[in-house]
User: Which sequence fits this backbone?
């Protein structure tokens, strides 16, 4: 069941998201606790050594780069050099409101590569910026030509933006390998997602599908209390009763195949030619996720799920809402940078204090 992103071949069609793998005090607040080094090491070893999962996805904005650092540490702690297949790292450039030049792009890429050790796929985190999408794609093409990155990706792009990105890459003799975008049964029947999906198929751009279980909306044991806390439901204006038919169908298939609802959702995404990107926070979750591999939903079950899918797409958001989100993320990145500065100052002060009191 191997699959390709550009020229990169994966043994298994699955990517691991590390958004919650940051190490800072801010991550501790945002993620309701930081993952321990032992937990991350156990997840990494289980997935890479037992299940041949290769692709780990990060971003400079995940933990202010500490998610990237953690992946670098895990690679060196594990037996990567003994494998016959490579473990691959992807990360993302965020065009924040403070970035306006090619040098800012290449500086961010250099820092990410230093933290990761290497970068196989470099995604543009969002197409929203006062500078045109083509500007950032041309920067990525320069990096690919220089051999700093292997493949270029985009993220959260609609059909028109995918076409623009591919056209600009082709102008530089390069290609867009992937579009990382929300792709699940909550948004599958939205016109914008359908158009984007067909465009990616036409242009041979692989969809890396995040949000496959709808932040828990499509998993087992969803309660009213859990529903009320799920951000995606609030973002899309989703009501609990709108999920009834879809969840009933998922429950039926979970029983039929002897799988969890989450495994049905991930397998559904694989059957549609995407590479699911699943955020993993525990060894139990890692083992549950890989249960979606090695089998396929029957065609009639796949079509039935498609019919029950909703139209709650996120690609049709007004530009101002998407821009507001970029502003929020830009502020978050600034907070991470401030956190790094404070930590650096504390370290310098401790060194100064100890050197003068020995």
Assistant:
């Amino acid at each position: 069941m191997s699959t390709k992103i550009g020229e990169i071949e994966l043994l298994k069609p699955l990517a691991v998201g590390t958004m919650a793998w940051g190490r800072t005090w801010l991550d501790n607040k945002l993620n309701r606790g930081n993952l321990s080094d032992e937990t991350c090491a156990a997840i990494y070893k289980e997935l890479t050594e037992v299940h041949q999962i290769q692709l780990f996805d990060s971003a400079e904005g995940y933990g202010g780069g500490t998610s990237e650092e953690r992946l670098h540490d895990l690679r060196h702690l594990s037996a990567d050099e003994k494998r016959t297949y490579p473990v691959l790292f992807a990360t993302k450039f965020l065009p924040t409101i403070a970035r306006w030049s090619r040098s800012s792009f290449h500086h961010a890429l250099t820092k990410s590569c230093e933290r990761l050790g290497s970068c196989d796929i470099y995604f543009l985190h969002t197409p929203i910026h006062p500078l045109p999408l083509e500007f950032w794609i041309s920067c990525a093409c320069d990096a690919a030509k220089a051999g700093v990155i292997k493949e270029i990706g985009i993220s959260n792009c609609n059909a028109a933006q995918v076409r623009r990105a591919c056209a600009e890459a082709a102008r530089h003799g390069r290609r867009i390998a992937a579009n990382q975008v929300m792709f699940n049964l909550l948004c599958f029947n939205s016109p914008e997602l359908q158009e984007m999906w067909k465009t990616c198929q036409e242009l041979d751009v692989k969809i890396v599908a995040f949000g496959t279980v709808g932040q828990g909306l499509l998993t087992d044991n969803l309660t009213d209390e859990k529903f009320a806390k799920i951000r995606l439901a609030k973002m899309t204006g989703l009501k609990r009763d709108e999920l009834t038919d879809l969840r009933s169908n998922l429950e039926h298939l979970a029983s039929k195949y002897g799988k969890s609802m989450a495994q049905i959702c991930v397998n559904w995404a694989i059957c549609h030619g995407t590479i699911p990107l699943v955020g993993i926070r525990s060894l139990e979750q890692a083992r549950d996720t890989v249960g979606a591999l090695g089998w396929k939903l029957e065609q009639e079950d796949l079509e039935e799920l498609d019919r029950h899918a909703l139209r709650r797409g996120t690609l049709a958001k007004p530009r101002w809402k998407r821009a507001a989100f970029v502003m929020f993320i830009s502020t978050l990145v600034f907070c991470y940078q401030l956190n790094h500065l404070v930590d650096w100052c504390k370290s310098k002060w401790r060194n100064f204090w100890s050197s003068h009191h020995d």
Remarks:
- Residues 3-315 form a domain with the TIM Barrel fold (CATH 3.20.20.100).
- The chain is about 50% helix and 15% strand.
- Residues 319-355 form the longest helix (37 residues).
- Strands lie at 3-5, 8-10, 15-17, 55-57, 88-93, 119-124, 149-155, 176-182, 206-210, 275-279.
